[in-house]
């Protein structure tokens, strides 16, 4: 009679151990995949990503619209137009020549640094958002004097095929002013 090799009593056979390890690995893979799927399809996570995109686009747009070098106006104004859409873009294009003359004549260079920003409203379905951005704007005059001012800007953004862009921009009210600013949506880049 032939004898089959068997595992000692109380110890699982190597085949059983391998099968158990494979079953545990499969269960872990299913659990990990399910967790990944849930996170990837979580509406709150998607909303947070959109909010972050809006904030980044809003801060960059406000910084762009408040930065302009009189020595390289074409590049700066092109950047303004790339940051804008809708009525704001139309206004920038309509007043570009006049603005170029004013800035070239004044010989000023402005630079903006974003201090902080926040999304104050986001409607993903409509593709509209609002941001408030605090900036520090430094103006270098033709006589090489500098002045610095902190400013709060309110921006409206619209989702475009190229991403979120500013559709309105104005100063935020300061002090006891009631209600939103009725300032023109033109940038303060000079």
How would you explain this protein's 3D organization?
The chain is α+β, with helices and mostly antiparallel strands and 190 residues long. It has a domain at 49-171: Nuclear Transport Factor 2, Chain: A (Roll). Helix content is 42%, strand content 28%. It contains five helices and five strands, in the order H-H-E-H-H-H-E-E-E-E. It has helices at 14-40, 43-65, 73-82, 86-94, 96-106, and strands at 68-69, 109-123, 128-140, 146-160, 163-171. It has a five-stranded antiparallel beta sheet with strand order 1-2-3-4-5. A hairpin with a 4-residue loop joins strand 2 (109-123) and strand 3. The longest helix is centred in the first third of the chain and has 27 residues, at 14-40. Mean pLDDT is 86; it is low at 179-190.
- Give the spatial strand order of the biggest sheet: 1-2-3-4-5
The whole-number mean of residue pLDDT values reads: 86
Shape designation:
elongated
Tally of alpha and pi helices: 5
Region (Disordered): 154-190
Main location: membrane
Biased composition (Low complexity): 172-190
Subcellular location: Membrane
